[in-house]
C-alpha cells in the first residue's frame, strides 16, 4: 500500500471514533481554512525560500543554505508527532530516503514542537533524516503556512490528551498547513504541495521525481 492508502485508512479510523457533532465541527474547521485561501497564498513554485536556521532534535543548529549547498532539498512541514497523519507521512518519506540520497538530495522536516518532542518523533518513527523545531512557527509563518486551530477542535484534541499549544511551548494552538517543497540548490522552489486539509499529503512519487529532475538539471 502507498501513503494515500494509509491516509485513507486513518481517515476512516478517525471518523469511526467521532460522533456526528464532532464530525461536523472538524469538517467545518477544514472548510474554514480552505475558504481563507491560505494554501493558495503560501510560498509557491518559482519563489525563493526564506533563509533560516533552526535547531534539530539534538539541539544542533541547521541552516537551510548549508543544506542546499549539498544539492536539492525536500522541506516537509508537519503539525507534530501527535498527529497520526503526520506520522504516516514521515514514515513514508523515510521509506524513500535512499532514493533522495541517490539523487544527491537531502530531506528536512519541520514542526512547531519543542526539540524534546521532535526527538520523540524521530525515535517513534525511526527517522534518519533531519527534524527541525520551529518555535512559534517562525519559519512556517515566513512560508505563509500558519493558521490557528479552531477552538472547538482544540477542545476535542485536549479531551484526547493532546495540548498542542503546550507541545509547542506557546500560548496559542497554531500549526502549519501540511506542505512539502522540493527546493533547488539556488533556493528556488521547484515543487510545492500545500493543503488546507490536514489529512492530505504530497504523493511521495511526485516528490522523488521532482528531486531527481532537479538533480538531473544540475548535472547538465
What does the model show?
It is built from eleven helices and nine strands. It is α/β, with parallel strands linked by helices. It has one domain (about 5-220): Glutaredoxin. Strands 5-4-3-8-9 form a five-stranded mixed sheet. Strands 1-2 form a two-stranded antiparallel sheet. Strands 6-7 form a two-stranded antiparallel sheet. A hairpin with a 5-residue loop joins β1 (about 55) and β2. α1 packs antiparallel against α5. The chain is globular and about 55 Å long.
Which terms would index this structure?
Glutaredoxin; two-stranded antiparallel ribbon; alpha/beta; globular; 9 strands; 220 residues
Shape category: globular
The biggest sheet amounts to: 5 strands, mixed
Mean pLDDT: 96
**Strand order in space, largest sheet:** 5-4-3-8-9
Short summary:
With 220 residues, the protein is an alpha/beta fold.
Compile the SSE list and pairings.
Layout: H1 3-16, H2 20-36, H3 38-41, E1 53-55, E2 61-63, H4 64-68, E3 73-77, H5 84-95, H6 97-102, E4 106-111, H7 115-125, E5 130-133, H8 138-142, E6 146-148, H9 151-159, H10 164-168, E7 174-176, E8 179-183, E9 189-194, H11 204-219
Parallel strand pairs: 3-4, 4-5
Antiparallel strand pairs: 1-2, 3-8, 6-7, 8-9
Amino acid at each position: 500500500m502507498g501513503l494515500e492508502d494509509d491516509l485513507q485508512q486513518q481517515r476512516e479510523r478517525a471518523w469511526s471514533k467521532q460522533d456526528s457533532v464532532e464530525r461536523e465541527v472538524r469538517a467545518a474547521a477544514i472548510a474554514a481554512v480552505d475558504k481563507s485561501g491560505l494554501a493558495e497564498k503560501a510560498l509557491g513554485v518559482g519563489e525563493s525560500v526564506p533563509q533560516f536556521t533552526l535547531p534539530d532534535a539534538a539541539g544542533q543548529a541547521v541552516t537551510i543554505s548549508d543544506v542546499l549547498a549539498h544539492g536539492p532539498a525536500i522541506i516537509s512541514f508537519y503539525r507534530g508527532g501527535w498527529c497520526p497523519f503526520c506520522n504516516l507521512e514521515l514514515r513514508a518519506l523515510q521509506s524513500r530516503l535512499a532514493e533522495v540520497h541517490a539523487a544527491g538530495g537531502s530531506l528536512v522536516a519541520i514542526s512547531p514542537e519543542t526539540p524534546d518532542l521532535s526527538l520523540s518523533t524521530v525515535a517513534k518513527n525511526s527517522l534518519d533524516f533531519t527534524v527541525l523545531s520551529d518555535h512559534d512557527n517562525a519559519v512556517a509563518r515566513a512560508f505563509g503556512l500558519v493558521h490557528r486551530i479552531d477552538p472547538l477542535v482544540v477542545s476535542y484534541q485536549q479531551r484526547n490528551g493532546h495540548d498542542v499549544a503546550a507541545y509547542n511551548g506557546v500560548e496559542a494552538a497554531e500549526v502549519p498547513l501540511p506542505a512539502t517543497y522540493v527546493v533547488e540548490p539556488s533556493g528556488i522552489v521547484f515543487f510545492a504541495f500545500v493543503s488546507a486539509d490536514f489529512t492530505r499529503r504530497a504523493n511521495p512519487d511526485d516528490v522523488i521525481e521532482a528531486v531527481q529532475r532537479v538533480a538531473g538539471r544540475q548535472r547538465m
